[in-house]
Amino acid sequence: MSRSIDVxxxxxxxxxxxxxxxxAKTGRRVLLLEARPNLGGAAATEEVxxxxxxxxxxxxxxxxxxxxxxxxxxxxxxxxxIKNDVAAFAPxxxxxxxxxxxxxxxxxxxxxxxxxxxxxxxxxxxQRTQRFAAVLGKMAALQPFALRANSLRVLAGWGRLAxxxxxxxxxxxxxxLRVLPMSAAHYLNEHFxxxxxxxxxxxPSTIGLMQGPRASGTAFMMLYQQMGQANGAYRSSxxxxxxxxxxxxxxxxxxxxxxxxxxxxxxxxxILCEDGRAVGVRLGDGEEIRAKSVLSSADPRRTFLxxxxxxQLTPRFSRRLRSLKxxxxxxxxxxxxxxxxxxxxxxxxxxxxxxxxxxxxxxxxAEQAYDDAKHGRSAERPVLEARIPSxxxxxxxxxxxxxxxxxxxxxxxxxxxxxxESEGERLGDLAVNTLAEHAPNLKSLVSNRHIITPLDxxxxxxxxxxxxxxGQMGLDQLLLMRPTPGFIGYRSPxxxxxxxxxxxxxxxxxxxxxxxxxxxxxxxxxx
Length: 527
What we know:
Blueprint: E1 2-10, H1 14-25, E2 30-33, E3 45-49, E4 52-55, H2 66-72, E5 81-82, E6 86-91, E7 97-101, H3 104-111, H4 116-140, H5 152-166, H6 170-179, H7 184-191, H8 195-202, H9 218-224, E8 239-240, H10 245-257, E9 261-263, E10 268-274, E11 277-283, E12 288-296, H11 300-308, H12 315-322, E13 331-337, E14 356-359, H13 363-374, E15 383-387, E16 402-409, H14 420-436, H15 442-445, E17 446-452, H16 454-459, E18 497-499, H17 513-525
Parallel strand pairs: 1-2, 1-12, 2-9, 6-14, 12-18
Antiparallel strand pairs: 3-4, 5-8, 6-7, 10-11, 11-12, 13-16, 13-17, 14-15, 15-16
Helix pairs in contact: 1-10, 1-17, 3-4, 7-9, 8-13
């Protein structure tokens, strides 16, 4: 069977859905193909146990670009965000707790209990990081420039960004350029003395990276994670009512409203190429579908080495793809709870548990966790970010019960000893035991447990090596180097084939930007 269509989008994660919805809105005939039975990919909310709904990948949608949400009118399709005043809560071994609030002045008052100097330094630090994150946000929303063959539109966009950078003022502009290649540890040490505060603020700097907070470039990631709505100098956070999957559902509804066809349980076996051009796809059952353009939201290695195939690629490009640094480093543990855990450090105030609950008491603690992982071991003292989304959105769990999800760092994709088939349950025990040190009644509340290892993220969600970012977001894999040198924006060396997933600029995180920007470029260049 063979039929024609304008655009095929491979993958139904949030970036693939963003691309499909935007292209359909422009009047293109769009077909999206998703291998799994559900849309959303790692931006999904799944009923893992009866009545218990978990965000099995991204914990929230704080980085999703408001311009895309507005252009697609996602509020018309049921997307609603829940207000939350709490950014993060860090229970400590000595029984104290540190809470960061969305209101930075309120956070400063909390910090004063740990260091008066840090409390005074916090508000200027917060204001500066917000200015820097705003510049990064503008950079993220631009098509990346190339060494040559840039259009006037691309150059004009980067020219406006240069004016924004200059608008910071001479001192802040130089500080911005100085900070980007720094380590988060170095940057935080320049401003604060309390280890509890530095450990908490450093956590977002390593999300999706197999690096510790002392690695160069982690200050960039700390700012990148604040590109969305301000959240007390912690990473941007917004929870859609009904879970993160509601965002994917709204994108899917928008795409269908504009005429896109979305097919699940439809794996793509290969991308069809003729004379160096992508002309369609072959499905797992042998069906061929032709299209003017193909957009892939799969990671670059899977897209080109798996779906296109080596014979269609130059040796140089193949080598670059094989050397692409993926390095997944995160697992998750999802718990169905009979009741609400008691964290004594919260002093009976359950409101403090509505944001991220972070176990990262110092820079040394986080760096030691990374040291374990770089040798192929799961961290014996893991860094954790736990959330109880049912506190904000009771509909995610049966009445009086709760969902608790734990992101576990660092968990290497490849273990030096054993494998994830045998080590998964031990990882679940470790995560629960570590969190239970701060919530003694936790283990007695657990009625069910679901573990997702880095290997599971590869097998089930299609994240090669468990990499949620589709490639490390180090300074050597950003902008015109992302995913590899040789791309012009999102256009690959295969004519008519575009990368629209997190492997493209600006990278990972639930932003929707790679899908949106790739769709816009493909639309301009489509025959």
